[in-house]
Design a protein that fits this description.
Layout (H helix, E strand, L loop, with lengths): L17 E12 L9 E7 L4 H12 L8 E4 L12 E3 L29 E6 L5 E12 L8 E6 L8
Antiparallel strand pairs: 1-2, 1-6, 2-7, 3-4, 3-5, 5-6
Length: 162
């Protein structure tokens, strides 16, 4: 059952009770080409990380298998100038600003997500595969279910390499 709560960051992360539901839109290479023909709805525990979201999108939902670098841009701008808004899989420091947020250790509960919030996910900086993500809502963890869940799939995922 979906609620309307907002993360406060005070939830007990060891025993997740809440989930986050995302709508995902494949935007194509460099954001041109697919619009909303290929979509997914994904539900994850609040204790899962942005890296878990990445793996759910690329490996579980799209069936791609070649790993590449990626980033989430929480100001919804590709390659944003505000490095605090970019959660990257890279552990290297930014040469200009120093440390930047890391997707592998950032739990969803720490992001203060709100229903309707939009952000961008870019996978494989060479091919520049772009995905729009919107927070659809929040739910409750159901015992016996293994998260993340793919709740809905529309459209066929393109091949990783054309």
């Amino acid at each position: 059952m979906r609620g309307t709560w907002v993360y406060t960051g005070k939830e007990n992360e060891e025993s997740a009770k809440k989930t986050v539901i995302f709508n995902l839109y494949y935007l194509g290479q460099c954001g041109a080409g697919f619009s909303r023909r290929v979509t997914r709805k994904i539900e994850m525990k609040e204790t899962q990380t942005l890296d878990d979201l990445h793996e759910t999108i690329i490996y579980k939902s799209f069936g791609w298998d070649d790993p590449h670098m990626y980033s989430f841009f929480f100001d919804n701008l590709p390659y944003s100038r505000d490095r605090r808004m970019e959660y990257s899989c890279s552990t290297e420091e930014d040469p200009f600003d120093g440390e930047r947020p890391n997707s592998t250790s950032t739990k969803l509960s720490k992001l203060n997500l709100k229903k309707g919030q939009k952000f961008l996910f870019i996978f494989d900086f060479g091919d520049d595969q772009r995905f729009g993500i919107e927070v659809d809502g929040f739910g409750e963890v159901t015992r016996g279910k293994r998260y993340p869940l793919i709740l809905e799939e529309k459209g066929k995922a393109p091949k990783q390499y054309y």
